Amino acid sequence: MSHVVYKVVQHDGGWAYTVNGVFSEPFPTHAAALAAARRAANEQRVPGRTEAIQYETSDGKWLTETAAGNDRPETEVEDGR
Question: How would DSSP label each residue in 10-72?
């Protein structure tokens, strides 16, 4: 099982959270960014339906895989304050 960390940080004149180096939209307050990070982390743990997914690889090939709806990561929120 994978592990995803949401980190709350100062960003772009306000606050945001990052996941694997990607920033969320900026929030005006630390509390708003922390609440958004917690909400996103919680939503990512919710199981869904098993479905077929299609995606294009960097070399232009299309692949089809089955994504298990119960294969959800562990998540945590780190407060960078």
Answer: EETTEEEEEETTEE---BSSHHHHHHHHHHHHHHHTS----EEEEEE-TTS-EEEEEE-TT--
- CA atoms within a 13 Å half-sphere pointing along the CA-CB vector of 65: 9
* Chain-centroid distance, C-alpha 68: 17
Kindly report the number of other CB atoms within 10 A of residue 34's CB atom: 19
Digit-coded pLDDT (tens) for 20-34: 999 999 999 999 999
pTM above 0.85, yes or no: no
